[in-house]
Amino acid sequence: MAGRTVRNRSSRAGTSRAARIAAAAACASLVLTACGSTTDNAAPAGGEGGEGKVGVILPLLTSPFWQSYNDYVPKMAKSEDVDTNKTVNSNSDPSQQITDINNQLNQGVKGLVVAPLDSAAISAGLDQAERKGVPVVAVDVAPEKGKVAMVVRANNVAYGEKACDYLGDQVKTGKVVQIMGDLASVNGRERSEAFRTCVKKKYPKLKVLEIPAKWESDTAASKLDTLLNSNPDIKGIYMQAGGVYLAPTLQTLKSKGMLKKAGEKGHITVISNDGIPQEFDAIRKGQIDATVSQPADAYAKYGMYYIKAAMNGKKFKPGKTDHDSTIVKLPSGILEDQLPAPLVTKENVDDSKLWGNTVK
User: Fold this and answer.
1) What is the pTM of this model?
2) If we measure between CA atoms, which residue out of 205, 261, 258 comes closest to residue 229?
């Protein structure tokens, strides 16, 4: 995802998962009302001034990224004058997330801020919210269909391209590994395809080896171990989620005597996604070389900003915002505020403006 979900359990069959999601979706009452969508500085189009409780649903809490996001939620809710319920953790289970949405709706929330686990499955929950006239803001993952007031997200295609360019400039030639996220998530798909396409187009001397790890740390560790046994000449690694993959990747490299510091002979160039404090420490130690800072603080801030706007009936249009981002219209017709996500290396890792340097 942050798209980064940690599912340390066996995979479920598609039909079983679909059945559970459908059952969860059926639990909500079907009360039909209208709900507003969300332009910077637009005047309210009605509503009750954003009054009412807002439900906040997390994908998981086993990743440092989502732990940080969870910590930011009450602070940003207060700064944006939004009254939230206690956050709910769906624990990496898409069907549970639908149940969590229904539970919040049955409690009478007037808005929802949700970080979807599955880009397709989330539509069942979005449909229930629409039937009850409750606006939804999606954070980190864009749904494939369903109504949301806004998606608050960084450009995940840019994540893959930045990783490609960094490894291409540093490695030049040889084998590089892409440890992918869950391809059921648009985040995993976009990062993977962007990296793959960029390498093929711009760095043909690199050979990409791929590990489909589903945002699961154990899966990443075991598959990386196996891959390194048959490919000990790996020169670079792209981890699509540092919150999930950093620790197992470093441990696997260390166990094989392949964890060399930057500048040392045999160092494997590593770039990640997330921008958590642990990645920054690893950059300072020379264990990894770079990460793309996914803005956990801004996800929480603008999740609150847009849900309040939606509850007030404000509307937004594609274009530049006043907070250094761009709102785009996705092929589905949904609006997405693409927040900036800077590349972090040893040159700027101590920048006090990076959220990973503000977390205690």
Assistant:
1) 0.83
2) 258
